[in-house]
Amino acid sequence: MSVRRARDAENQQVAAILTDAFVDEDGLNYWLRQGAVKDRVRKRFFDAAVRDVVHPKRELWIAEADGRQLGAALWLPPGAKAFDYSFIEEVMMTPLLLSIAGIKGMSRALDLGKRLSGHHPHAPHAHLSFLGVHSSAQGRGVGSAILKQTLALVDEKGLPAYLEASTPRNVALYQRHGFEITAEFELPSLHFWCMTRLPR
Q1: What is the pLDDT of residue 182?
Q2: 160, 78 in Cβ contact below 8 A?
């Protein structure tokens, strides 16, 4: 299995992997529209997130084996804050947010974003915004391969790494790669763990 930076022309493949991987992820289901439109709005979210909505400086990674792309990750470098918009940019984003979240979901997303932003390390750090493995390849070490490769580069820069997790299974995965729980909080039907890893 190899892990590499995604090429500019591979945004769609990265988005497709994450869309599949996050089908039952509590953090997204908390604010995205559900029901019959659930799959469609999740796809639209990741299409936008991978393009530039998370941050224009996002770094995309792909894991592949035997010609198949199995996993993907989206990292943010130090100083790049996820979903950090000016007032004008927020206004321009409103139609997208309404279409994928609705009014109630938008309110939930804003509240969740405020809570998460308060738990980032104060020191410059790399932020793992999304890590996902296609459902057909889960449990085969794809996520660990991505973490090993990308965290090695974070270590070379002497940076801490930070992420959020919403399932005990993911918390256990990240702990195996050196992350420690630094904060956690609850919202209705949702528990979040904030995790930090010091450079090695």
Answers
A1: 95
A2: no
